Amino acid sequence: MHATIRKLFCYSLALVFLNTTTLLKAQSTASTASSLTPPQITSAHTIFLSNAGGSTYFNAFTGGPDRAYTQLLGALENWNRYQIVQSPSQADLIFEIQGIAPATASPGNDIPGGCSPQLILRIRDPQSNAILWTTSANVRASGLQKSRDKGFDQSIAVLVDHVRQLTGEQLSPTEQAAVRSNASTYSKAMIGLLVAGAVGAVIMAVVGIHLVHEHQNQTLTSPTLPTCPTAPACPI
What we know:
- This protein is an alpha/beta fold.
- It has a domain of 156 residues: 3-Layer(aba) Sandwich (Rossmann fold).
- The chain is built from five helices and seven strands.
- The strands form two sheets. Strands 2-1-3-6-7 form a five-stranded mixed sheet. It has a two-stranded antiparallel ribbon with strand order 4-5.
- Helix 1 packs antiparallel against helix 5 and helix 4 crosses helix 5.
- The protein is globular and about 40 Å long.
- The C terminus is likely disordered.
- This is DUF4136 domain-containing protein.
- It comes from Edaphobacter acidisoli.
């Protein structure tokens, strides 16, 4: 029994480490994005900001699903890197912002265990509508209204910092730390779910093995039958 438990525990840990390594590798790959930036993004002067909307999940934030558009518009104006125009035909680039909240499944089943709200920014070519680049920021949506709105503000700032990196700007140490922290939000959640699932699987295995072990050690006995009275009262 102990050998089986050890095998299950080792397998669970291997699963956790495998997924952790994959997530960390993805974060490392993202850091090299600036070297692959299409020249059109760095040479552009004008942009049109398009609102691709958001799911009803974003009603949890002040301003609802349109908050991403209005807040990103203000952040881009403050950055003052691009001139924001009123029509796609006037723009060198189209920035398309969308809020999504895909369901996350618990390990080992298809039942949704929560949501992973994200802001997706797609940079498009106005002429062909082709997507030149896509970046995203996770949104921390826990706590009271004030806390949720603060998390949303931080996500918008991270999104703009991603674009700043694409154009070759250097972020301050504080901004770099914020970008790394935002990237790790989803990773930590997934690792937590994986650990919980692994521990749960081990516990269920231990309980199952223990019940089987007890069942095998039980002595099977036939039930005691009542003494049959004198015929003809005794049933045939």
